[in-house]
Specification:
By secondary structure, this protein is mostly helical. The chain is built from 15 helices and no strands.
């Protein structure tokens, strides 16, 4: 179960193609670098229309190195910090965690441990750059995280849509890292930080990343001893607001709420809806591709047994057919 993993739609990766003036100095080269970084951020969303998993992974890995170079050149450029926060968090979920899940399902303990560590390192880096990005708006985070009250006062400095976007991606990486290491008491003790960031982001602008902040909070509430009624209401709201086109909503609704609630019918209905969907939104092809990969695993006998469902008459999902060509 994850905390709103619908948040990877903008992995923002352009492999190659950016020739930054690595050896240049002075105001002109800085202006050129800043312009290229800003243009890269604007153009990066185009990658979300590509529904090829291997192409996405290669592009993401190349983009990470590119964005690190941008940051080295212009360490105070907030566009570069944003790209790093978003790309490292997206890479962790879309590829490192995906490999961890697959290795776990195959019983390959050594490989699962390896990929889990890769995901942790990627989330760590996303959080690091995210906090640096937020620090451009308000310093004092380290002092503020002592408790919920001090953190709330620090978050009062954020009010714009840009702030909400930055809080979303930083909070997303924070929550995902905790979910990955939910057996670590020290990690879980700081869960409130990611929750508070996501709550602030949603309070400012809930529409960011197709209501993914609301999905993240719904998944957070759908936990043992959590607020299940509130979680259900938030999932239903996200389904309505997205017209069911963000398949990560259905995925998380099933794997968090329906699983914990023991509602097998809802669980299967939601995941089968994900698998049956055909290109519901060209701008969300990547995030929906990832939802389909996880939905298929979620319908496996072992995953459903992990939810406590009666599997005496289980029928596994059909083999994944070749995807129809996307509508451009």
């Amino acid at each position: 179960m994850g905390y709103g993993k619908g948040s990877v739609r903008a992995l923002a990766v352009l492999a190659g193609g950016l020739a930054l003036p690595l050896g240049s100095t002075g105001c002109i080269s800085n202006i050129l670098a800043d312009g290229q970084i800003a243009a890269t951020r604007q153009a990066a969303v185009a990658v979300n229309t590509i529904a090829d998993y291997e192409v996405q992974r290669s592009a993401t890995e190349a983009g990470l190195a590119q964005f690190e170079g941008m940051h080295l050149l212009r360490p105070n450029n907030t566009d570069a910090l944003f790209l790093l926060t978003q790309a490292w968090g997206g890479y962790a979920y879309a590829f490192a965690e995906d490999a961890y899940d697959e290795s776990t399902d195959r019983g390959e303990d050594d490989m699962a441990s390896y990929h889990k560590k890769r995901a942790r390192l990627a989330y760590d880096r996303a959080v690091f750059f995210g906090l640096e990005l937020l620090g451009h708006r308000a310093d004092g985070f380290e002092e503020s995280k002592r408790n919920a009250d001090t953190l709330g006062k620090w978050l009062d400095h954020f009010s714009s849509t840009d702030d909400a976007t930055n809080l979303f991606w930083t909070g997303y990486a924070w929550l995902s890292r905790v979910n990955l290491y939910k057996d670590d008491p020290a990690m879980v003790a700081d869960l409130f930080i990611g929750v508070a960031m996501m709550e602030k982001s949603v309070a400012i602008d809930p529409t960011i990343e197709h209501w993914s902040g609301t999905v993240a909070l719904a998944a957070y509430h759908a936990r043992p001893a959590g607020e299940m009624d509130e979680a259900k209401a938030m999932f239903e709201k996200a389904l309505a607001q997205t017209a069911r086109k963000n398949l990560q909503v259905q995925l998380n609704y099933a794997t968090s709420y329906a699983c914990l609630k023991g509602d097998k019918a809802l669980y299967e209905t939601l995941l089968n809806e994900v698998l049956a969907a055909v290109d519901p939104d060209p701008e969300q092809r990547l995030v929906n591709l990832l939802a389909k990969r996880r939905a298929r695993r979620g319908l496996s006998k072992q995953h459903m047994m992990d939810c406590g469902f009666d599997m005496s008459s289980h029928t596994p999902p059909a083999a994944n057919p070749a995807a129809p060509p996307p509508k451009h």
